[in-house]
């Protein structure tokens, strides 16, 4: 009996790991390390809070699909076609910005690893062509396999680096007086939103595991129970939260107070990111770390370019049931559209990596309350099986999260008029 439960759980695990892979790319490698480098360990509590307050809305995606066998998008449709239309329109905008941001980071890591001197546009084009080719050949099964390996390697390396750093360096220096950026001026508030917007991921990405869960069931021919689906979710979500704390620590213990700041150039930033590890482990590890970080970010790019087209295609098909074009065809059309728009945006932000990343993350944060409310309405509506609806504590946490997201959005908007 126990062996059967383990086998069923192994058949279930997958979507949560893919989610972790998507999250760790942008919010962890970039924003979390920047938080540690600029503010030491001061923002650890904020990182924990945003992961806590976003928790229900990501959990709802797994909950709804496990309970109904439908994707979260179909839940949106049951709220009314306008809900799907709103999600589609907002997702078009966020997908274009976020896809360009992760591509530019991946291109910088690619240039750093292979010593390329081509323009960011050319390297980004190469990254995108490889991405689309891999998705065309492998699709979900390839993503599922590679992500588990890469996330495990990055997690082990990062945790080891932070622990070694704590052991060999004097942690008391974090309590010394260090000149750091102002946290509550316009730039500081913008950074807070950038950190939280992608922490652990944009809320609209809660639809992704829902769609991946359906693909996973097709792959394994097994429909998981709600309990099994939530185990998969918690492995990914708790894991990505813990990793966020370690990435903040990585930036804090290695860069905080050193006078060094992250560059706005993609290639230079990538080199600095790799050096966070090599300064502690040793220069001999540079090629290993550079490879792991690049493949991890490449995996994130693959995830993003699979998930957004899959989500947009599914949404459009639900909005316009009379369209004869298949979901699969729409998937590729949206994928091509994202490649083209990403290259255009990268061309505009060639030397402004941090600017593009912050803009993308802030947009995601401002859109978060809308997606959060939609997810809450889906799992508390009459069409959701009553026995699988969220418990009272989860509903309370949901409303705390919605209030938190709205409050910080208002603070950001007001800061634009004050400063």
List the helices and strands and how they pair.
Elements: H1 2-12, H2 15-39, H3 44-68, H4 72-79, H5 81-114, H6 120-168, H7 186-197, H8 207-220, H9 226-254, H10 266-281, H11 286-319, H12 327-348, H13 353-380, H14 392-418
Helix pairs in contact: 2-6, 2-7, 2-8, 2-9, 2-11, 3-8, 3-9, 3-13, 3-14, 4-5, 4-13, 5-6, 5-10, 5-11, 5-12, 5-13, 6-9, 6-10, 6-11, 6-12, 7-13, 7-14, 8-11, 10-11, 11-12, 13-14
> How many structural units, i.e. domains?
1
Shape: globular
CATH class designation: Mainly Alpha
SSE order, as H and E?
A: HHHHHHHHHHHHHH
Distance between the termini: 63 Å
Per DSSP E runs of 2 or more residues, the count of β-strands stands at 0
CATH superfamily: Amino acid/polyamine transporter I
What would you call the structural class?
mainly alpha
Determine the mean pLDDT.
85
Q: Regions with pLDDT < 50 over 5+ consecutive residues?
A: none
**What share of the residues does DSSP label as strand, in percent?**
under 5%
Radius of gyration: 21 Å
What share of residues is helical?
over 70%
């Amino acid at each position: 009996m126990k062996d059967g439960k383990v086998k069923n759980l192994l058949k279930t695990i997958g979507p949560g790991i893919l989610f972790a892979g998507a999250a760790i790319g942008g919010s962890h490698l970039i924003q979390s390390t920047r938080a540690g480098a600029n503010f030491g360990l001061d923002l650890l509590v904020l990182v924990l809070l945003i992961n806590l307050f976003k928790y229900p809305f990501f959990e709802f995606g797994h909950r709804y699909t496990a309970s109904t066998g439908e994707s979260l998008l179909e839940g949106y449709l049951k709220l009314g076609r306008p809900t799907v239309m709103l999600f589609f329109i907002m997702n078009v905008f966020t997908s274009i910005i976020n896809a360009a941001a992760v591509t530019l980071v991946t291109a910088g890591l690619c240039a750093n690893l292979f010593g390329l001197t081509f323009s960011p546009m050319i390297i980004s084009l190469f990254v995108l062509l490889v991405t689309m080719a891999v998705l065309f050949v492998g699709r979900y099964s390839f993503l599922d396999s590679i992500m588990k390996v890469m996330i495990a390697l990055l997690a082990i390396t990062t945790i080891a680096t932070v622990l070694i750093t704590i052991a060999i360096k004097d942690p008391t220096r974090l309590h010394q007086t260090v000149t750091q950026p102002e946290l509550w001026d316009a730039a500081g508030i913008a950074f807070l939103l950038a950190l939280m917007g992608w922490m652990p991921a944009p809320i609209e990405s809660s639809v992704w595991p829902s769609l991946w869960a359906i693909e996973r069931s097709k792959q394994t021919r097994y429909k998981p129970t709600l309990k099994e689906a939530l185990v998969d979710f918690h492995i990914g979500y708790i894991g990505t939260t813990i990793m966020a704390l370690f990435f903040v620590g990585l930036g804090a213990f290695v860069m905080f107070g050193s006078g060094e700041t992250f560059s706005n150039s993609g290639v230079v930033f990538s080199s600095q990111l790799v050096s966070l590890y090599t300064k502690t482990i040793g220069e001999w590890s540079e090629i290993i770390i550079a490879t792991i970080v690049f493949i991890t970010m490449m995996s994130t790019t693959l995830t993003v370019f699979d998930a957004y087209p899959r989500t947009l295609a599914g949404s459009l098909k639900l909005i316009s049931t009379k369209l004869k074009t298949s979901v699969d065809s729409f998937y590729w059309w949206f994928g091509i559209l994202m490649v083209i728009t990403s290259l255009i945006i990268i061309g505009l932000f060639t030397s402004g990596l941090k600017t593009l990343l912050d803009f993308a993350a802030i947009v995601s944060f401002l859109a978060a309350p809308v997606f959060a409310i939609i997810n809450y309405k889906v799992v508390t509506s009459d069409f959701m099986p009553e026995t699988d609806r969220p418990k009272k504590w989860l509903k309370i946490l949901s409303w705390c999260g919605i209030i938190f997201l709205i409050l910080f959005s208002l603070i950001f908007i007001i800061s634009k008029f004050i400063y």
